[in-house]
Amino acid sequence: MTGWLFVASNCLVALLVVGLMFLLVAYFSLPVRSFSEGRRVAQRMLRGITGREQPVAFVKEGQLNYPLEGNHNKTPKIILVDQTSVVVLSGRAASKASGKRGRRFRQDRLPQSNSRIRVAGPGMVFVGSNESIRGVTSLRNYFRSADGIVCRTRDGVEFKTSVSITFSLYQPPTILKVGYVANGQEDLRVLKFYPQMNVIKILSDELDDQDKAEVHKAQRVGILPSVPLVTEETSRGFPPYQLDEAAQNRISAAVYYRPRSVTDNGLDDWTDLPLEEAIRILRNMMSKETYKDLIFPDPFTQSPLIEDYKQRFSSVVCNRGLLSYQLIQRVDGSPLAAGQRIDEVNYQIYSVQEFSSSNILRERGITVISAGFTKL
């Protein structure tokens, strides 16, 4: 009897030592961030030793390294995500592996209104039994360009140009300073300041009617004042990335956008959308002007109007992405003008508000950083 107890105790100690070894290997050699994650890795390593397959996938620079075509019935249970990427998981219920309840999104952003999605990474991601991979994406800024884009002017002149755009899912919305040059909704302008100064340089008419109506309504209803003026925007374009709920919502909305391609009947990627929208905007702008007006110099500035169009084009495209505004008004009710210095005594500065009006880029959580086109 004593011999059996000795053997049993030795076996128990051996199992505990093996389990501890797996736990230490998982915790110190893999990108786990807590003891519970290390424990789950150790469990999966033990399952692999016992013959129960635990598929592993890798995500690097927004690219998934896992042969989904040959593993339709094998969703990876562990995904190793690099520091510049995230993975979007979908399921019918909250994942037990995540330790958090899934979030419910608007029906117009997801194919199924009862779907729950989770944005995970960077690091080691554990996939729940009820979850599947919806998509992966990079948190870095994206750059897309296209050559040989054909445009036509109002008088039928055809020309080719190249269009480029830089955009991001991780960057926060751009903040525009806006104000009135008169009293009407159509008199709203975007304020441009001199560098490192609160002096108005120009007032640009670049907001579309939908955004003007939203600002004008907020001004009439009343929004809480907030000082001082927001002069700098925090850039979060470099790792390590910290994903707040707003960033996760933007990523989810973009990854779920998978329109069917008109060329090969496949599914387009969300990263194709910003460039397509920029090309559409450019063609629409050029169709309203004659070729002579674009090429020949302005009699006052002696520079071709096309240079002005490049700036207008960039502003229009950037304003189609995620956008916030900060309304500024004079205390005495006078209109704003170039050369005025904004201060907290003579000007009412309102809190930053995010535009809620809908367009195709904002709905997908895309912030446009810059856009442009080459010479005609």
Describe this protein with a few key phrases.
alpha+beta; four-stranded mixed sheet; 3 domains; 8 helices; elongated; six-stranded mixed sheet; about 375 residues
Description of the molecule:
The protein is α+β, with helices and mostly antiparallel strands and 376 residues long. It has 3 domains: 1-51, no CATH class; 55-138, no CATH class; 142-373, no CATH class. It has helices at residues 2-29, 35-49, 209-221, 245-255, 273-286, 291-295, 305-318, 360-363; strands spanning 56-60, 63-65, 78-81, 85-91, 116-120, 123-126, 131-138, 142-152, 158-168, 174-180, 188-193, 200-204, 323-330, 347-349, 353-354, 367-373. The strands form 4 sheets. Strands 10, 11, 12, 13, 14 and 15 form a 6-stranded mixed sheet that branches. The protein has a 4-stranded mixed sheet with strand order 2-1-3-6, with no helix packed on it. Helix 1 crosses helix 2. The relative contact order is 0.14. Residues 93-114 have low confidence and may be disordered.
Q: What is the 3D form?
A: elongated
Domain count: 3
Computed Rg: 27 Å
Oligomerization status of the protein chains: single chain
What share of residues are in beta strands? 25-35%
Structural class determined from secondary elements: alpha+beta
Number of helices: 8
Terminal Cα span: 95 Å
Helical proportion?
25-40%
Write down how many β-strands occur, each being a DSSP E stretch of 2 or more residues: 16
User: In sequence order, what are the helices and strands, one letter per element?
Assistant: HHEEEEEEEEEEEEHHHHHEEEHE
How would you state the average pLDDT, rounded? Answer: 78
Largest sheet: 6 strands, mixed
Which runs of at least 5 residues are low in confidence (pLDDT < 50)?
A: 93-114
